[in-house]
């Protein structure tokens, strides 16, 4: 028995463990029961658009398999998190303990992710995070049965600090929603910006999910920094970028961000988004054949352009398909599934990636600029960036 299996079984009573061992070495590969996939995403609230794109991408990947992996149909059980951390324990427990989901895909919001991880720790379901960036998810709270197809907070903001300094900005104001992911993004930006020689002269935190930005923007105008770096996403990103323009700051104080500021939002933001510069592990216009095919198919299926959230959901679906194919349909032996997942290379629209020891993608971060409503690639900001996974002991 390998070490991973020992970790899983060590938390179970001996009789249950014995049953799992016999199931995993028995005839489960021939099982034709559905593979149960719990989906915990925000389908309402400020992150509703992100949840919808993630679900679309996930289903696109499973559809490519004919909704059947290694002879087994796929059953989705969907739950709306509303991006509310308080809902995480109850929903996770319902999917893991009552429904006995093989996989739980979610969430979008970092606070929800931390609640889910606490509830899924030591359980016989595998969690795949298709967005939330909380560093601890693949850092201090990393778990054998938790994987991420998205990013850590650190990965998306750290490269922008040096880029901003190299663009000639020395004094910057930073701003985000006041919760884990936003604060970690500002910290990561600060880390590289100050190391390069810059100074963050003011940090502004807005209560989540508030979108009244006028008073903050008035203060930014009076400070008049060289540039502004922010994290906002979804409906908040649309409102922020439009307000920035409407308050007359666009064209005077350059707006920078982690890429969520312009992901899936540029149509709604219109001309206000033009020239906004961000860093992210994806860009609409990425010149990779896989990306072109993915975007074409997504548009045909859903009648609108794909975005990063769709890519990350798609890769969660690809991860399930590849891992379950490798175990010939056996999902009972979770340790064997995890072992496969750790070794896989995912042929993502963002470019192929594999997982670090802490189960986070090692991936290239791009410097991007919005041109004609598209996130275009300016240059590679950091090739194959691996999160430091501070505190993870996997
Ligand atoms: C987060 O809470 O981790 C998050 C939410 C939206 C976009 C990116 C990250």
From TrEMBL:
Signal peptide per UniProt: 1-29
The entry's keywords: Signal
Pfam families: Peripla_BP_6
Keyword Transmembrane helix attached: no
Every Leucine-binding protein domain range: 34-373
Highest taxon of the lineage: Bacteria
PANTHER family: LEUCINE-SPECIFIC-BINDING PROTEIN (PTHR30483), PERIPLASMIC BINDING PROTEIN OF ABC TRANSPORTER FOR NATURAL AMINO ACIDS (PTHR30483:SF6)
Family: Belongs to the leucine-binding protein family.
Name listed for the protein in its UniProt record: ABC transporter substrate-binding protein
């Amino acid at each position: 028995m390998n070490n991973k299996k020992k970790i899983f079984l060590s938390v179970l009573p001996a009789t249950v463990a014995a049953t799992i061992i016999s199931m995993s070495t028995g005839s489960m590969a021939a099982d034709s029961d559905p593979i149960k996939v719990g989906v915990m995403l925000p389908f309402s609230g400020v992150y509703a658009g992100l949840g919808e794109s993630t679900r679309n991408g996930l289903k696109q990947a499973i559809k490519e398999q004919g909704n059947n992996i290694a002879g087994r149909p796929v059953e989705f059980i969907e739950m709306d998190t509303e991006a509310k951390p308080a809902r995480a324990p109850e929903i996770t427990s319902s999917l893991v303990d009552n429904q006995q989901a093989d996989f739980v895909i979610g969430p979008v919001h970092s606070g929800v992710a931390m609640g889910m991880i606490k509830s899924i720790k030591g359980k016989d379901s595998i969690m795949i995070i298709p967005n939330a960036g909380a560093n601890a998810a693949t850092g201090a709270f990393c778990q054998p049965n938790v994987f991420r197809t998205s990013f850590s907070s650190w990965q998306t903001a750290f490269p922008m600090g040096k880029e901003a300094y190299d663009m000639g900005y020395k004094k910057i104001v930073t701003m985000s929603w006041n919760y884990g992911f936003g604060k970690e993004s500002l910290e990561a930006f600060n880390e590289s910006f100050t190391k390069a020689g810059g100074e963050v002269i003011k940090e502004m935190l807005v209560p989540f999910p508030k979108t009244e930005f006028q008073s903050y923007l008035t203060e930014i105008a009076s400070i008049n920094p060289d540039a502004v770096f922010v994290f906002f996403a979804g409906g908040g990103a649309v409102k922020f970028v439009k307000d920035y323009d409407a308050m007359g700051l666009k064209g005077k104080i350059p707006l920078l961000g982690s890429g969520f500021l312009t992901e899936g939002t540029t149509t709604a933001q219109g001309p206000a988004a033009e020239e906004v510069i961000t860093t992210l592990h994806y860009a609409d216009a990425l010149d990779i054949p896989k990306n072109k095919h993915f975007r074409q198919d997504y548009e045909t299926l859903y009648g609108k352009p794909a975005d990063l959230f769709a890519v990350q959901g798609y890769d969660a679906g690809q991860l399930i398909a590849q891992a379950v194919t490798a175990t010939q349909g056996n999902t009972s032996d979770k340790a064997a599934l995890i072992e496969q997942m750790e070794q896989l290379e995912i042929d993502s629209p963002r470019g192929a990636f594999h997982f670090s020891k802490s189960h986070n993608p090692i991936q290239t971060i791009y410097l991007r600029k919005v041109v004609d409503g598209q996130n275009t690639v300016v240059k590679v900001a950091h090739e194959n960036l691996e999160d430091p996974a501070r505190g993870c002991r996997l």
